[in-house]
Structures are given as structure tokens and as C-alpha cells.
Design brief:
- The complex is a heterotrimer of chains A (380), B (512) and C (313).
- Chain A has 380 residues and is an all-alpha fold.
- Chain A has a domain of 251 residues: Orthogonal Bundle (ABC transporter involved in vitamin B12 uptake, BtuC).
- Helices cover 71% and strands 0% of the residues of chain A.
- The mean pLDDT of chain A is 87.
- Chain B has a six-stranded mixed β-sheet, with helices on both faces.
- Chain B is an alpha/beta fold.
- Chain B is 32% helix and 26% strand.
- Chain B has three domains: 235 residues, P-loop containing nucleotide triphosphate hydrolases (Rossmann fold, 3-Layer(aba) Sandwich); 180 residues, P-loop containing nucleotide triphosphate hydrolases (Rossmann fold, 3-Layer(aba) Sandwich); 75 residues, no CATH class.
- Chain C has one domain.
- The longest helix of chain C has 29 residues.
- The model of chain C has no long low-confidence stretch (mean pLDDT 87).
- Classes of the chains: A mainly alpha (380), B alpha/beta (512), C mainly alpha (313).
- Chains in contact: A-B, A-C, B-C.
- Chains A and C meet through helix 6, helix 12 and helix 14 of A and helix 4, helix 10 and helix 13 of C.
Chain lengths: 380, 512, 313
């Protein structure tokens, strides 16, 4: 008997994600039509093409590299969200943990002159501590992790602005250039930049983030720790009954999630691709986009790699739209529509499954009816 | 001429994917009678009542009210036809008052504002008339189960329902409350209400019902007048053969004490008092001790305290001579305590895990299943799962990789029993291990418990089923309001005596 | 001092309105994490009115139109939550989060489009309403009374009466506590949950426009509403889902939020020489602490967050 490919969970997740993407782009297109019908198609294409919009090949490569540079932190944030979600926790605090990591690596690099590895590790530790706060509040005070996460996002933002004010440029609100003031803290490029038309922002961060995604997958699927975490996420009463240390697991999970998101911050700021603005009054969207990527990737670490790239791809693509007609935020709009649609993934899978079940039942009845027919025929 | 039947359900068929829950069932309820609907778990009683109440639509068959065909699409239709139901699990909002719960859905209002005064008068009048004692201003969460049930009955009367359905109403009541309920039902019938009484307890049916319809495995077996019938006949109709509930076993040969509990107390989540108060008992090797009692008398909390799911507020637990009062759950489990939990979905299984992953839930950390580096040894897990599935006849669609969620309740329970018994525990704590199982599976579980005993292990059984309490254990301890009120020998006691203890009407000083 | 009271009252009004919105939604059984997004969209509705309604209309008409704009868009936006969480049984956390991001992104895109259409060089996401805003203000001896303070009090009274004195309130709360019970007495759980969500759209929209009218006379929509939707949720939890307690909690939180706006007006606060960021984060720190101490014994509606499925009884 032919095995129904649609029954496979991974295939279903992929289909659901593709539906989300297509619908998201389509709805984005409709919004653009409302704003200005003349350029809507071109704008959506520009978003989808991203670096392919560049006419020169070498520039294309460089811009592809730039997309990858920002994919690495996004992937880390989405791994953070994914990891926590496996334990049944919604880590919206990834945004704040990302900020905490950025703050830690920048102050260590610019303020204290640390090398790249200590900076990276310091960011990890700070992120883990920041994540642990959410975990402790959840485990011991029953505080909803979404609300505490949001509060900590803002607290983190203001604290970071305060701390980084000590290492900002005197003429602007931006922090000093890491590449100029603290070159020792720049992540090693491993010669990868050459592949992307000498893009100096390409570093170790990109391969490392992919390796971490694979590591997360192994931890979740192959180890005792992953078994415990997923059991806690699936049924925390059963986990407790089986003697798993539920509170410890919650805290540990959020520490790891915090460290992952914080690494994301370090992966961006230790390339000097961006500078931190100490007057910014909204939490960077990286952590929130991480939620999008995690769910779009079907909560699978490998799927998340592709989903993160896709989200970053369209985010960067936003810069290529005709700015006289639309704003670059249309890519934010599209990715938020996609997250909204991701809320329906279960529903889509359910629809696929009921569809299959119905068809099978019909077929079974047909077979039965046919069998009955032949039996009658035999009798006669 | 007036139609003799208040409600007729004619040739009802209701299918669910994979099963026919009701297969051509006919039920006719006369006006002013108490009509029992008898059947085992899974016989189709609840489905049939859900059809009558508009919760499900039947594929075939008609429902007639006073001789006329009616269509019942939802509970509103049922209510409009004067059909009311006391559900097995009460449909009461816990943080509302009794009065609010009664009027909900048919609130008297003026310009949209609630007019509670007239509602209260009506409720008080009704409770007077039928002898239903309630305090209309008490919150549901503060009152007894019996009073909650009376609230449900008042809900129907307030709506002036003529046809009253009682879905297993006695399961949660003490014998005294049951007697009271029987009287209330008779009063209601005398006032002209027609009553459908769903039960699998023969004695109650004989005591209160005029007629009885029996279902078995979704099929209609027959309808009899109770005064012309006997318990034996009803029982045979219900199970399809003469049942021998008796469990075959040799006399117990108790050995050393395995478990010793001294003055244990556990706090309640529902009220300020202790749910378990000053309980002391011993369980020895080679015996089955049963804690009997009516649901909600502290048995659950006792088990939580014993297995470590809840902390004790007093007393201590000695397990094989060692004090484990404060030991974590894992430590108790490793020392040799197994626990078949009361609620398999809440505690027993991770429904989104495969069967094999659920089968190692208590042992995954052992060297057999986890390597020194922390990686799971998948091969070993698989072969272990395959062995348990074979030994305990756990049936599922895809064997070890079936999702627990996709398995039937009975097989889920078997998987848990396999996991807990195969751990080779010194003490097996089995809480209602046969809940929701069919007769064959029940026999299987009972046999396994006796096997454990005969292998020299200690078994602590917590049960609500009288048959089980009388047949399986070697000693019975009765729990009432969180205390052990009596120790009985199942060979010498009677169900009547047991009932008196369970109801708190009789108690001894037990030193156990 | 007067300034502090003024800011406290206006911020409290915002928090009260939004928290009451959350309260309705949660009593019906739907966790509304999308309040932040609803606020943004509501604010957009009001701001658009202020931008496009000619200033020649009377202040009263202006107030009514702005409120109408905020309410209509707030309600319309909340349908996204309703469709997803009530009809399609989506995960309420994901949907709420998506709505927050979508709210800010959509408002930004939309306002930028309007600005660019009016003036090709203007790519900002800011709407100015210095003149129109005056319709809301009454100066009473140096104290700037904002009509929203009154609206918040009225909204509180309405919420209290609706929840505790009407048939609707009784049924709504039943759906959040025990939807099966509500269903069994013929209450349409889906309808009641929709009502709860839409009411939270009304309140959230009002709160949104009130928020951007609070201090400034222009709003940059890229900034969203700075976590106020979540502060309101904290207020709601602190208020234990009860309107009167929510009002008290809103006053407390409003005070701390106001301090960050006016601390430089107090000599002793200035002399402490605390960076402004500290005051900015105060409300969030306070709510975190408050939550830590109050979440243990929460009286949250029992069935909130669980999609109701008629099939599973």
C-alpha cells in the first residue's frame, strides 16, 4: 500500500508554512493595492527579490551577504523562542534577552576592551541571567512568562540605553564603531567575507548559528535532557509525576533560551554592522521576528534556519520598494501577517488530517460495498 | 386520547468514526415514571442521552414528545420541550452563587438588568416544595457535592422541565445522600415529572425505578418492569453472561512491613481544612490493602502525599524502614514505589509522546536507556517497549511509535499498568486502576495485582467500586473525610457494613 | 504638583480603559494579548479623524468623531483576534503577539503612505494634531482637564454594571469560567466570546487614542504604544479581574508612569540625580514586582485561553 505522504508530520508542517507564506504575501499585496494600486505588484516583487534587485553581480553577492549577516542573530532569536516553546513557554522575552546580549558585548568591547571570545561569552552569561529572571518568576511566583517577558524587554531597553551612553560617539546618539575602537572584539571572519565580494561583516557568526541550530535539534531529539524538556512541555503534571524537576527545567530552559537570544545580539554588534542608538524608544524587532521565524519553521530547528533566512530576506527586501509609494515597513507588515497566520498552523494540519480521514472512510466504504456486491454475486 | 409516553426515542442510530455508539435503540418514557437506563461503561447510555438533550444528532431514528415527532438540535430545543438534565459532571460555575447558577440562561430581567429578587422567591418556594435544601447565596465552590446536585435539580425545576434526566447521579454521593436523592426522585415522579435515571448500579435501580431499559455495546437489549425482575436478570442482560466477579486468589501470606505511614496530614486545595487528617497505616509484603471510600474523601490527596506530588502538613512516611517523608518523587520511584495514577491524562501519559516514550517515562534515565553522555539509547527503548507491548497486550495502530493520544482509553491504561508493574516495584500504588475499562480488561488488571501480591510485593489499591473493594484486597481500610474510620476483612464483612463506614455512620478507632 | 496629578489621571485613564477591555475579553474566556495592537490601531483611527476632520467643526463634534474613529478601528481590529481564537481555535498567545506587531507595522505603513501622498518628501510616520487636540482639553485653573478622564470613569461604571448587574454580564462570565455549563443552559459560547473580544476592541481603541493624546501633540506610529497594552494587562491581573480593583491599580500604575514625565518638576527628585531612564522603566519594574507578589493566588477566569470546542463536552 502506498503510504500517504500528506500524513507525515514534517510534510504537513512544510505545507502549512508555505500556505502561511503565500497567504501572507498575498494579503500584503492587497494592502499595497489599497495604498497605491499602481506599484503594488512591483513592490511585492522587490521585497521577494531582495538582493536580486541589484543589477551588478558583485553587489548582489555583497547584499546577499548582508542579508546573511542579519539572519544569524535572527536565527538565534528564533532558536531561543523555539527552545522555550518546546517546554511550553512562550519566550516573548527573547527581544529583551537579545538587547541584554547586545548591551553586554558592546560594553565589554568598547568599555573594557575585551577580546571577541570573552565578549561573546559575557553576552551569553548576561542573557542567561536575564532569561533566568523570567524562569524564576514563572517557577516560583506563577507569573505569566509573556507578561514578565514584555516588562523585562522594556526594562532591558532603558537599562541598555543608560549603560551604553558611556560608550557613545560624542557627536551622535550612536555607540562607537567597534571596528575602529575595539577591533579585537570583532568576530573572526574565517576568510568567509571573500566569498561575498569582500563583505567585511561576514563572520564566524553565520556558520556558528547554523551549528547551534543543529546542536539544539540534537539536544531536543536525542538526549535525556531534551526528553525531559519536551515531556514537561507536553504535560507538566506527567513530568512531575515521573519525578522530573519541573521548576529546575523551566529555569534552565529559559536560561538557555536567554543565552541563545543574547548570542544573537552579540552576533550582530560584534560585526559592527550596526551601532546601538542610545535614544531608541522601542525594543528592537529582532526578538519578535524570531517568534515569526520559529513558528514559520514549524518549530523545527532546521526549518527555523530556512524560516529565519526567509524572514530576513523579505525584511531586507523592504529596502528595495519604491519609497515614493510605500515605506520599507511593508516587510514588517508581511512578516507580522505571516505570524498571525502561523497561529492557524494547527488548524491547517487538522484540516489536512480530516480531509485524509474523510477520503479514507469513503474509500473504505466503497471497498466494503464492492465486497458486499461480489459476495451477493457469489451467492447468486 | 392523551399519548401515554412523555418521550419516545425510536430506532436511534448514532455513529462515530470507527464505532456505532447507538445501534437502533428504542426507549420509551411513560409520564410520571422513573425509568432506569442500565448499561456498562461504553454501552452507549451517555450518547443516547446526549442525543435526547440535543448535543448530538442521530443518523437514524426519530424522537417523539407526547406522541409528536420533534427535532432537537441543541440544548435550547431540549429545554423548550421541557427536557432537563443533571450531568454526571455538574455544569455549575464555581465562583457564582447557587441562585446565579439556577437562573443562568433564563434570567428574569427588566431592561436587561437582573431581577434576582423574584428569582430567589421562586427558588425558595421550589426548594420548600420538593425538600431540596440549598442556600441560594452560597458560592458553589463552598458547598457540598450533595448541595451542588440539588442546585442542578433546582435548575431543571426552575425551568419547569417535565422530563428530568439524571446521569449517574449517585456516583459522587454518600449512601445517606443517595437515600435522600431517591426520595427526591420519588417526590418528583409523584408530582407528575417523568424521570430518566442512568446508572450501572443494580440495587439503586431496583429500589427506585419503575421500569428499566438495558443497553449493551451500543445495542438495545430489552425493557423490563423492575418489580417483575431481579438483580440477577438485570445483571445478565447488562453483561451478556452470568458474571463471576469473584477474583481467584490464594490466601495472603503477609511478610515484613514495606510501607508505614504515621499520622499523615495533607492540605486541601478546596478548603482550609486538611484533606487528609492524621492517617496511619501499614502495608506488608504479599498483601493487597484497599483504601475504600466515596469519591472526594481525601483519597486523591492521600496518594499525592504518599507519592510526593504534594507535601505533607504533618506526619511521616517510612518506606522499607527509611524515612521518605521529604524525599522527592524520583527518589521514591527509584526506591521501588510505583504509582498507577487516578487520572491517566493528567498524570499518567504525555499524550503527544509516542507509546515507547511513554513506556520509559519512569525509567528513561536509567543506564539502559540513557548513555553516560546523556544521549538516549533509542534501540534499547524500542526493544523494551516491544516487550511490554507483547507482555501486556497493549494494542495500538502503529506499535511503539503510535502517539499515545491516538490510543483507546483502555489501551492507554494498559500501557501505564505495564510501565508501573514492569518496574518490579516493592510497593504498587494503584488508584482506580480499572476505571473506564471493559470487563475483560478489568479481570486482566485484577489478575496482575494478585500476581504482584503472590510475588511477595505490597499492593495499595485505592478504589471507589464496591465490587472491586470486596473482591480484590486482603484488607480494607475505609477513608471518610480524610480519616481512616475502619479496618475490615473482606471475607467477613458485607456491603452494607462497608457502606455504613463509607458514609461515616460507623467508625472504629483504627491503629492499623 | 498639579502637573503630576494631571498626568497621573490621564495615564490612569488609559490604563483603566485598556485593562477593562482586557477584563471583558478574559471574562469571556479569551486572553487578549493583542491589546497593544488594538491600542495602536484605535489611536490611528482617532488620529486620522483629527487630521482629516476640518478644524471648523465644533469641539464637541470633534470629540465624538475622534472617539468614533478610535472605537470603530479598535473593534474592527479586534475581529482578527475573534476569528483566530474563537472560530479557528488558534493559539491565543501567537495571535496576540502577531496582532501587536501587525498593529504597529500596519499603522506605520499606512501613515507613511498618507504622509507621502500629501508630500512626496515626507516619509515620516507622524501625525500632528496640536489644534484638534484642544477639543479634548478644558483648562481649570492651570489643571488641564481631559475629557477622557470623564470617559474613563463612565467606562468604569458601565463595566461594573454590565458585569455584575445584567444578564449579559452573568452569561459572559459563565463563558470564561465554565463554557460547558453555559452551553448546557443554551448560552451561545461563541457569541458571548465574540462579544467579549469586540468590547475589548472598543475599550482598547479608546485607550489607544487616549494614550497618544496624553502628553504630546503629535504621534510617531513607528513607536507603537510602548508596552502600555501589557502594562494594562498587569493592571488587570493586579486588579484581580474586578473593575473596581482595576481602577485602584490603574491609579497606582498611572502615578509611576506620570513620574517619568514630570520628575524634573520636583526639586528633590532632580537633586537625587537619577537618570531619566530609571523613571522610564519604573512602571515596568513596579508591575513586575506586583505580578511577582500577586500571581500566586490568581483569580483568573478558569477557562481563559482554552478554545471552546462544542464537540468536546
Amino acid at each position: 500500500m502506498k503510504k500517504n505522504l500528506l500524513k507525515n508530520n514534517a510534510v504537513q508542517s512544510l505545507i502549512a508554512s508555505l500556505i502561511c507564506i503565500v497567504l501572507g504575501l498575498f494579503l500584503g499585496y492587497i494592502v499595497l493595492l489599497f495604498i497605491n494600486p499602481s506599484g503594488a505588484g512591483g513592490a511585492i516583487l522587490a521585497v521577494i527579490k531582495n538582493f536580486l534587485n541589484s543589477t551588478r553581480a558583485n553587489l548582489r553577492m555583497k547584499n546577499f551577504g548582508n542579508t546573511l549577516v542579519k539572519t544569524a542573530p535572527l536565527l538565534m532569536c528564533s532558536l531561543s523562542v523555539l527552545f522555550a516553546y518546546k517546554v511550553g513557554l512562550f519566550n516573548i522575552g527573547a527581544a529583551g534577552q537579545y538587547v541584554a546580549g547586545s548591551c553586554a558585548c558592546l560594553i565589554a568591547a568598547l568599555g573594557w576592551g575585551w577580546g571577541w571570545l570573552p565578549c561573546l561569552l559575557f553576552a551569553c552569561v548576561v542573557g542567561a541571567v536575564y532569561g533566568a529572571v523570567v524562569g524564576l518568576l514563572k517557577a516560583y511566583c506563577n507569573v505569566n512568562e509573556v507578561i514578565s517577558g514584555i516588562m523585562l524587554n522594556w526594562i532591558g531597553l532603558y537599562t541598555t540605553n543608560m549603560i551604553l551612553a558611556s560608550v557613545k560617539e560624542s557627536t551622535s546618539n550612536y555607540t562607537l564603531h567597534v571596528a575602529n575602537e575595539a577591533p579585537q572584539a570583532i568576530l573572526p571572519s574565517l576568510g568567509l567575507g571573500k566569498l561575498f565580494n569582500n563583505n567585511q561583516y561576514i563572520t564566524l557568526a553565520i556558520p556558528l548559528s547554523i551549528l547551534l541550530a543543529i546542536a539544539i535539534m540534537i539536544v531536543l531529539d536525542k538526549t535525556k535532557f531534551g526528553y525531559e524538556l519536551k515531556a514537561t512541555g507536553g504535560n507538566k503534571n506527567a513530568a512531575k509525576y515521573a519525578g522530573m524537576a519541573e521548576k529546575r527545567n523551566i529555569i534552565l530552559t529559559l536560561m538557555i533560551a536567554g543565552a541563545l537570544a543574547a548570542l544573537g545580539g552579540a552576533f550582530l554588534y560584534q560585526t559592527d554592522y550596526e551601532q546601538w542608538s542610545v535614544t531608541q524608544s522601542s525594543v528592537p524587532g529582532m526578538g519578535f521576528n524570531g517568534i515569526a521565524a520559529a513558528f514559520l519553521g514549524g518549530l523545527n530547528p532546521i526549518g527555523t534556519i530556512f524560516a529565519s533566512y526567509f524572514i530576513q530576506h523579505i525584511t531586507n527586501g523592504g529596502a528595495y520598494v519604491d519609497l515614493t509609494k510605500y515605506s520599507s515597513q511593508i516587510s514588517d507588515l508581511i512578516s507580522s501577517i505571516i505570524i498571525y497566520l502561523c497561529g492557524f498552523v494547527l488548524f491547517i494540519k487538522y484540516a489536512i488530517n480530516t480531509g485524509i480521514a474523510r477520503r479514507e472512510e469513503k474509500q473504505a466504504r466503497k471497498v466494503q460495498a464492492e465486497a458486499a456486491e461480489t459476495e451477493k454475486g457469489g451467492d447468486a | 386520547m392523551e399519548a401515554p409516553y412523555a418521550i419516545e426515542m425510536l430506532n436511534i442510530t448514532k455513529r462515530f468514526p470507527g464505532i456505532v455508539a447507538n445501534d437502533n435503540i428504542t426507549l420509551q418514557l411513560k409520564k410520571g415514571e422513573i425509568h432506569a437506563l442500565l448499561g456498562e461503561n461504553g454501552a452507549g447510555k451517555s450518547t443516547l442521552m446526549s442525543v435526547l438533550f440535543g448535543l448530538y444528532q442521530p443518523e437514524e431514528g426519530v424522537i417523539k414528545k407526547d406522541g409528536e415527532v420533534v427535532e432537537i438540535r441543541d440544548p435550547n430545543d431540549a429545554n423548550a420541550l421541557g427536557i432537563g438534565m443533571v450531568h454526571q459532571h455538574f455544569k455549575l460555575v464555581e465562583c457564582f452563587t447557587v441562585l446565579d447558577n439556577i437562573i443562568m440562561g433564563v434570567e428574569p430581567t427588566k431592561y436587561g438588568f437582573l431581577q434576582k429578587k423574584e428569582a430567589r422567591e421562586k427558588v425558595l418556594a421550589l426548594s420548600e416544595k420538593y425538600g431540596l435544601r440549598v442556600d441560594p447565596d452560597a458560592l458553589i465552590e463552598d458547598i457540598t457535592v450533595g448541595m451542588q446536585q440539588r442546585t442542578e435539580i433546582l435548575k431543571m425545576l426552575y425551568r419547569e422541565n417535565e422530563i428530568l434526566i439524571f446521569d449517574e447521579p449517585t456516583a459522587v454521593l454518600t449512601p445517606q445522600e443517595i437515600v435522600e436523592l431517591m426520595q427526591i426522585m420519588k417526590n418528583l415522579a409523584a408530582e407528575g415529572k417523568s424521570i430518566l435515571f442512568i446508572s450501572h448500579k443494580l440495587a439503586e435501580i431496583m429500589a427506585v425505578a419503575d421500569r428499566c431499559t438495558v443497553l449493551r455495546k451500543g445495542k438495545y437489549i430489552g425493557t423490563v418492569e423492575t418489580k417483575n425482575s431481579s438483580m440477577e436478570e438485570l445483571s445478565a442482560m447488562m453483561v451478556g453472561r452470568d458474571v463471576n466477579f469473584h477474583v481467584e486468589k490464594k490466601p495472603a501470606q503477609p511478610g515484613d512491613t514495606v510501607l508505614e505511614i504515621e499520622h499523615m496530614s495533607v492540605a486541601s486545595k478546596l478548603h482550609k481544612k486538611d484533606a487528609v487528617h492524621d492517617v496511619s497505616l501499614k502495608v506488608r509484603k504479599g498483601e493487597i490493602v484497599c483504601i475504600a471510600g466515596i469519591d472526594g474523601n481525601g483519597q486523591s490527596e492521600f496518594v499525592y502525599g504518599l507519592t510526593g506530588l504534594e507535601p505533607l502538613t504533618g506526619g511521616r512516611i517510612l518506606f522499607e524502614g527509611q524515612d521518605i517523608t521529604r524525599a522527592p518523587i524520583r527518589q521514591r520511584s527509584v526506591k521501588g514505589m510505583s504509582h498507577i495514577p487516578e487520572d491517566r491524562h493528567k498524570h499518567g501519559l504525555v499524550l503527544d509522546y509516542t507509546l515507547e516514550d511513554n513506556l520509559v517515562l519512569q525509567r528513561y534515565f536509567e543506564p539502559e536507556f540513557t548513555s553516560k553522555t546523556g544521549f538516549l539509547r533509542r534501540d534499547n527503548i524500542r526493544s523494551y517497549a516491544e516487550r511490554l507491548i507483547e507482555d501486556y497486550d497493549v494494542r495500538s495502530g502503529q506499535g511503539p511509535v503510535t502517539m499515545a493520544r491516538a490510543m483507546s482509553g483502555g489501551n492507554q491504561q494498559k500501557a501505564i499498568i505495564a510501565r508501573e508493574i514492569d518496574k518490579d516495584p516493592e510497593l504498587l500504588v494503584a488508584v482506580q486502576p480499572t476505571r473506564g475499562l471493559d470487563v475483560g480488561a478489568i479481570e486482566f488488571v485484577h489478575k496482575k495485582l494478585v500476581e504482584q501480591r503472590d510475588a511477595g510485593k505490597a499492593v495499595l489499591l485505592i478504589s471507589l467500586e464496591l465490587d472491586e473493594v470486596m473482591d480484590v484486597p486482603d484488607r480494607i481500610l475505609v477513608m471518610y473525610e480524610g480519616e481512616i474510620v475502619g479496618e475490615l476483612d473482606p471475607k467477613k464483612t458485607t456491603e452494607d457494613e462497608l457502606g455504613l463506614y463509607m458514609a461515616g455512620a460507623k467508625r472504629d478507632e483504627v491503629s492499623a | 504638583m498639579l502637573l503630576l496629578i494631571q498626568y497621573t489621571l490621564i495615564f490612569s485613564s488609559v490604563l483603566l480603559l485598556v485593562a477593562l477591555g482586557g477584563c471583558f475579553s478574559e471574562h469571556s474566556g479569551v486572553i487578549n494579548l493583542g491589546l497593544e495592537g488594538i491600542m495602536v490601531i484605535g489611536a490611528l483611527g482617532g488620529a486620522l479623524m483629527m487630521r482629516f476632520v476640518p478644524l471648523t467643526v465644533s469641539p464637541f463634534v470633534m470629540v465624538v468623531l475622534v472617539i468614533l474613529g478610535a472605537v470603530v478601528l479598535g473593534v474592527a481590529y479586534s475581529t482578527l483576534l475573534g476569528v483566530a481564537c474563537i472560530n479557528l481555535k488558534a493559539d491565543q498567545t501567537i495571535v496576540g503577539t502577531a496582532m501587536n506587531m501587525l498593529g504597529t507595522a500596519a499603522a506605520t505603513v499606512f501613515v507613511k503612505a498618507i504622509n507621502t501622498a500629501a508630500n512626496p518628501d515626507d516619509v515620516s510616520s507622524t501625525i500632528q494634531y496640536a489644534e484638534a487636540k484642544k477639543a479634548f482639553l478644558v483648562n481649570i485653573g492651570g489643571f488641564e482637564f481631559n475629557w477622557f478622564m470623564l470617559i474613563a470613569v463612565i467606562a468604569l461604571a458601565i463595566a461594573y454594571v454590565t458585569l455584575y448587574k445584567t444578564k449579559f454580564g452573568l452569561r459572559l462570565m459563565a463563558c470564561g469560567e465554565h463554557p460547558q455549563a453555559a452551553d448546557s443552559v443554551g448560552i451561545n459560547v461563541y457569541k458571548m466570546r465574540w462579544a467579549g473580544v469586540l468590547i475589548s476592541g472598543v475599550y482598547g481603541g479608546l485607550g489607544g487614542i487616549c494614550y497618544i493624546l496624553a502628553g504630546v501633540s503629535e504621534w510617531r506610529f513607528e513607536n507603537g504604544v510602548a508596552g502600555f497594552g501589557f502594562l494594562a494587562l498587569a493592571v488587570m491581573i493586579f486588579g484581580q479581574w474586578k473593575p473596581t480593583r482595576i481602577a485602584l491599580a490603574a491609579l497606582l500604575f498611572g502615578l509611576f508612569r506620570a513620574l517619568s514625565n514630570v520628575y524634573f518638576g520636583f526639586d528633590f527628585l532632580v537633586s537625587l540625580n537619577i537618570p531619566g531612564s530609571i523613571y522610564n522603566m519604573m512602571p515596568y519594574v513596579i508591575s513586575l514586582l506586583v505580578l511577582a507578589f500577586t500571581s500566586k493566588n490568581s483569580r483568573a477566569p478558569k477557562a481563559e485561553g482554552i478554545p471552546y470546542d462544542k464537540g468536546q463536552r
